[in-house]
Request: fold
Amino acid sequence: MQKNSNLLIKVVLVICLGTLPGVFSGCGSTKIQKQQNKATIQYITKDNRMERILFNDGFLRSTPEMTSGTIVTNVYKGSQGMMYGKRFINGMYWAKVTTREGVTGWYSPGDKPGQEANTDLSTTQKNFSMTYPVISGISSQAEEKINKEITEYVEAFKFVAGPVGNTLQCRITYNKDDLLSILFTSGAVRNRIYKVTDVNNHAFWTNIIKYCFIPELNSDMDKVNLVAPITDLQYAMVFSLQTGDRLSYDYFIGNNSKKQDFFKKLGNLRQKGTDCFYLEPGGKLWAYFEREKGPETGRKLVDLSSLVTKKF
Reply:
């Protein structure tokens, strides 16, 4: 009996010395390391290299001649078109182009009052590269949710960019502790024309303005069109890697007593939802706010790190 008791004591001592720390975590000083789940990221990149024309007001025409019967639509300064080539016809430079909206016709910068008929075309051959991530390495349900959200943003981006395209860059800013943070950056699209039928299609338009900031629309010379002086395509999203759900920055800020006073100091910057934000290591949290009017119209980053109460 004494021999059996001594054997039992030795077994307990071996366990407490750390031979089986995963079973008896209370014995000894062994610490259990927290599992830092990460996602696997694959980047998809598509290049759109072509010659583009920079419009300077004027009209798009069905044929390269300036008569009232050839006008297809007007074009706005700062907007762009995809160009198939140019020709010098009847003392004027003309280009066969397709606008962002998918309208094809002939354009000449000399078509604007006050410009010389032989004014050359303003063009660019910049490569518009589009990059976005595909997520794997986590549960199939979470992957499906996250990739679906990314796809919906990319589809909204492609609708705004149209055949002309636009640069889209993507950066994973945080990928551990069951959190995934994605930041999309892109240049603004100027004077984009939207069809009234698209704007009035509630389900379609709600999805566009969820991902793309579009300020107040102006009426066009055509009653079927509306014009946005700027469309801001910058965007950000944060997900739970366990569930695949989008997170709100309120998840990290909570009921911080400083929040109300902080937001009051932002002036005319407004929130449109609380899920357009991204994380960076060290407890950094940046959120996009929006400004409808003024010289800095569009989405603006605001540092909310001082309000964060949930460590990550």
Notes: Confidence is low (pLDDT under 50) at residues 1-34. The first helix runs from residue 2 to 19. The chain has two domains: 40-48+127-307, 51-124.
